[in-house]
Amino acid sequence: MKVTVIGAGNVGATCADVLAYREIANEVVLLDIKEGIAEGKALDIWQKAPITLYDTRTIGVTNDYNRTANSDVVVITSGMPRKPGMSRDDLIEVNAKIVNSVTENVIKHSPNAILIVVSNPLDVMTYAAHVTSKFPRTRVIGMAGILDTARYRAFLADALNCSPKDIQALLMGGHGDTMVPLPRYTTVAGIPVTELLDKETIDAIVQRTIHGGGELVKLMGTSAWYAPGAAAAQMVEAIARDQRRIFPCCVKLEGEYGIDNCYLGVPVILGKNGVEKIIEVSLNEEEKKLLEVSRQKVSEVMAAYDRIVGVKQ
Ligand SMILES: NC(=O)c1ccc[n+]([C@@H]2O[C@H](COP(=O)([O-])OP(=O)(O)OC[C@H]3O[C@@H](n4cnc5c(N)ncnc54)[C@H](O)[C@@H]3O)[C@@H](O)[C@H]2O)c1
Ligand SMILES: O=C(O)C[C@H](O)C(=O)O
Fold this sequence. Notes:
Blueprint: E1 2-6, H1 10-21, E2 27-32, H2 37-52, E3 57-62, E4 73-76, H3 92-109, E5 114-117, H4 122-133, E6 140-142, H5 145-160, E7 167-168, E8 171-172, E9 180-181, E10 187-188, E11 191-192, H6 199-210, H7 212-220, H8 226-240, E12 245-254, E13 260-271, E14 274-278, H9 285-309
Parallel strand pairs: 1-2, 1-4, 2-3, 4-5, 5-6
Antiparallel strand pairs: 7-10, 8-9, 10-11, 12-13, 13-14
Helix pairs in contact: 1-2, 1-8, 3-4, 3-9, 4-9, 5-6
The chain binds nicotinamide-adenine-dinucleotide and (2S)-2-hydroxybutanedioic acid.
Catalytic activity: (S)-malate + NAD(+) = oxaloacetate + NADH + H(+)
Family: Belongs to the LDH/MDH superfamily. MDH type 3 family.
Domain Lactate/malate dehydrogenase C-terminal: 147-299
């Protein structure tokens, strides 16, 4: 298993580190446009191998796509992170150019790879990578749902003073203020969360989850990386080990949930072929309305992308 991580910044380097120490890949190539940064971080991760004990080779390169050839999975983290006061959508212009040029280079050298997109605005950057690569939709997958669900689960574990390991949850929709956490599909060791927490507490946790990325941007002046990097690595692991795990991931919807031609987070089975199946759960009227609001928002940003890159409608 060969994995390339594009972008050796905070998220990319964290992802490469998790891929290495969990031995998810035999070889991880870290690529960045900035001279030396990927080489340095890859060397640093490799020098940790004798301490934390792993065999994964990590190789860093400056924009040399030859070294990425025949990757099985490519994680795209290149792009600007937001600063306090910005929304993820404010990154569209700068990151669309980066994601498109990176995708063109990646597919030339790894035409059979599965692409995992991390750059923001996530849903629309997944669209950008899909349109640019012309890969089947099962091989272009956006990472956001695992992260957003992890935040939701962590906040619930705090409120319940229990292990986050016992919390299972589902969250759908776009990666932004319109995401749709689903308390009706949230359980704690099999117990519906609605049996354990009152509505007011759950509502407050849902709101904190929705604004979870912004909370960290405000604290750090840039966006998060430990949980995002680990979340992307977890997707790679499901593919590399053909685990058929069920995660919320961003994919192009073609009629599922009554939605066509929009990139949204939905539960999928992830395995060796990428998206093995999109799972359609039943939603009540309120949940359907929230998902529709999310669809409208992502579609608006997709249209903005089309205008920026001149895609014919
Ligand atoms: N989907 C999510 O849930 C999620 C979570 C966290 C961050 N993000 C997004 O991921 C992206 C990266 O975040 P970060 O914190 O790692 O930022 P960062 O600034 O630490 O790293 C980005 C890296 O990309 C590199 N880069 C820029 N253009 C490039 C190109 N053309 N080719 C190769 N490398 C290039 C930069 O040199 C930099 O090292 C941002 O867009 C951020 O918003 C998404
Ligand atoms: O919030 C951001 O800008 C980064 C990322 O999308 C996150 O949710 O942490």
